[in-house]
């Protein structure tokens, strides 16, 4: 019905492609036995691995396991260990297991359940020896599906198809520079075919994925290295990390290594920057905390912003951004502080201070730098871009 | 390769469903002639309308029109009017039309081009009289595809299938109750076929989608109403909103209506709750701000949490949650305050205070309620669930 964006297709494709398994078909179908059986029979004719997501829940419209069993003409057998795990899952929460959840412990004859540490629905692996097709059934919630894909499916595929060659990627993360500026300067590598260099869109930053195809990992890395060097040489001040690194992780690693600390003062970003920082485990070693000073009173009270600065220059101004950063640094007794104040929109803009205008400052006790940023886009885009930009500015300062 | 989210499937499905045309299959395939022909031959066997998006551009990897023509065994004929329009499009921009764009004016024999006021690629309609299937080919850019869907495809479908009626949905939002508990109590409505009731998963809350099929919108609403009433009666304390409403929007609407204000004090959620609140435009009318008191010093300094409470009970305790809420309420001079302190993990848990243990409190100046929550899951899940749970608790209090 179009109410949910098919994020599964993206996540599964990204993960498998990264490991060298090409995906040729995405198919989405509703909770209807006849149509599910139809798409299964189409899938097995054209693919030797079929990954099915969703429909492993406890309710009657969760049909995936039942349909695959029927398609393979196999029974569903109660897995006593999985049932025990489910019982413990509920007991652990001080509840009795609802009768409906029992069916989540059913396993297709000849298959095996895949553990789900993040929910009640185990996944399933089953091999159809008649058609030589491997089935993986994964739960629908992304926070359950993605870990299972990573921890169960990919290792298993690596064993099942050991000689598929490898596609190895290296993702270079840049911030503070736009896609067209990047693209114009590295045409020599973006037009090559092995390795390929593809820009990936990510809000507030830019990723360049270099992908090399080779018989083995080492040969692929030999192909990757000179292209990475080329990009790093061209964009030295913008390349802040690679692969799984994030602005928060690189900033956190540097601060932790130097035994230094950070605090933040947010207005327009409303806690987003703080939430990004604390989303990474271990952030408490360097992050002291933050103030979301949404109301002007809070800017004065918690951050020592002067009333005259607010009255004279307004909350969205260089003066207030600087006072917020200095105030947050002092109040939290931190080595560094970042502040953000701006007009996130969609309303509230004026001719002098349009939607998307953001002032960000970084204080370190001796100097305070302030940046005037102007973004175009939605409230969410403005908040994300401004938060990431200031993390990048801090990284530039402390790297 | 998973680099682009399939927003087309969503947009087309939403538009067609709203007009009473059920969509049974989504298929995505790359720019490969063989695979495109294969999916076309599957599609015509199961559907009487096939909508294809993308692949109408000027470059060599744009294959849609060519493949459909080949599939139907028809020629591509230059449409002189469309060619003229294309020439004018470029002339208007002071440019000469590149040779490559000529092919965008080709029309499948017996078909008709659909005008594209927003780009260079006209759409196509063609009827396959052998298989009795209607094809619509639409350009890929959403800002070209969606207007063409609305202005060309839907009116044409209305003429081709005049009596198809409407499908109308209503989404009921619940929080504080799990999927299996909900399902067990409303089997009478979840097993009915019109309206249908389907649970939708969403982190930290639960959605029930009621969908009625009827000849017109009013008749559909008459079918929906009793089912919605039944669900509301059964889960009165959990149903906080419908359709586009969110926990933040309903809490915000009530507080704004009463001219009351809110502040928050966060430890384990690290700014996430504040960021959720401020993500909604207009939150500044009731939201005063928050403190992310990650370090214990910040809990004392900004929120007046007693050192003895921290030493005696630890930061993750009922006592500290209560003092945080009361402190945040007072410091921001707000009518209500929410606090959250817990162990978000993945490390840092102990036997007495395991990962996922969260204390949340709500202070209103006269009483302070504290809730002991225990979650299982990733750091992200724990943070989202705890934040939403406390919004739901506040809603329960002020509704």
Structural commentary:
The first copy, chain A, is 41% helix and 23% strand. Chain A has 399 residues and is α+β, with helices and mostly antiparallel strands. The first copy, chain A, folds into three domains: 7-160, MoaB/Mog-like domain (Molybdenum Cofactor Biosythetic Enzyme, Chain A); 166-242, Alpha-Beta Plaits; 248-398, Alpha-Beta Complex (Maf protein). A five-stranded mixed sheet of chain A has the order 13-12-14-15-16, with helices on both faces. Chain A has a four-stranded mixed sheet with strand order 2-7-6-5, sandwiched between helices. In chain A, strand 9 (196-202) and strand 10 form a beta hairpin. In chain A, helix 2 crosses helix 3 (64-72) and helix 9 runs parallel beside helix 14 (379-398). Chain A is globular, with a radius of gyration of 26 Å. Chain A starts with 6 loop residues before the first helix and ends with a helix. The mean pLDDT of chain A is 93. Chains A and B meet through helix 1, strand 1, helix 2, helix 10 and strand 13 of A and helix 1, strand 1, helix 2, strand 8 and helix 6 of B. Strand 13 (287-292) of chain A pairs antiparallel with strand 13 (287-292) of chain B, so a sheet runs across the interface.
């Amino acid at each position: 019905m179009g109410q949910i964006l098919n994020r599964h297709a993206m996540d599964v494709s990204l993960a498998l492609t990264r490991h060298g398994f090409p995906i040729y078909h995405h198919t989405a179908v509703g909770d209807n036995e006849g149509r599910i059986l139809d798409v299964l029979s189409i899938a097995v004719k054209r693919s030797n691995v079929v990954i099915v997501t969703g429909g492993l829940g406890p309710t009657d419209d969760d049909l995936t396991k039942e349909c695959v069993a029927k398609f393979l003409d196999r029974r569903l057998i109660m897995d006593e260990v999985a049932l025990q795990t489910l019982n413990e899952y509920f007991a652990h929460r001080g509840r009795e297991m609802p009768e409906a959840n029992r069916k989540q412990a059913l396993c297709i004859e000849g298959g095996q359940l895949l553990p789900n540490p993040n929910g009640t629905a185990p996944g399933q692996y089953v091999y159809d020896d008649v058609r030589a097709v491997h089935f993986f059934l994964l739960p629908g919630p992304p926070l359950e599906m993605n870990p299972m894909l990573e921890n169960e499916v990919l290792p298993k595929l690596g064993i099942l198809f050991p000689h598929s060659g490898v596609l190895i990627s290296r993702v270079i993360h840049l911030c503070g520079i736009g896609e067209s500026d990047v693209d114009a300067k590295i045409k020599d590598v973006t037009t090559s075919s092995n390795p390929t260099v593809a820009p990936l869109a990510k809000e507030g930053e830019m990723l360049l994925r270099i992908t090399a195809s080779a018989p083995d990992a080492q040969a692929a890395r030999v192909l990757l290295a000179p292209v990475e060097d080329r990009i790093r040489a061209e964009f030295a001040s913008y390349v802040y990390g690679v692969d799984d690194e994030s602005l928060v992780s690189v900033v956190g690693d540097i601060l932790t290594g130097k035994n230094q600390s950070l605090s933040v003062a947010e207005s327009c970003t409303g806690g987003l920057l703080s939430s990004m920082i604390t989303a990474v485990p271990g952030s408490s070693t360097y992050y002291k905390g933050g103030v979301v000073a949404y109301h002007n009173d809070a800017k004065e009270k918690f951050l020592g912003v002067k009333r005259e600065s607010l009255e004279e220059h307004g909350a969205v101004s260089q003066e207030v951004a600087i006072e917020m950063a200095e105030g947050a640094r002092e109040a939290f007794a931190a080595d560094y502080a970042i502040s953000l104040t701006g007009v996130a929109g969609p309303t509230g803009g004026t001719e002098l201070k349009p939607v998307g205008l953001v002032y960000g400052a970084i204080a370190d006790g001796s100097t305070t730098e302030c940046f005037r940023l102007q973004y175009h886009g939605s409230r969410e885009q403005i908040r994300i871009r401004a938060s990431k930009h200031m993390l990048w500015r801090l990284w530039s300062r402390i790297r």
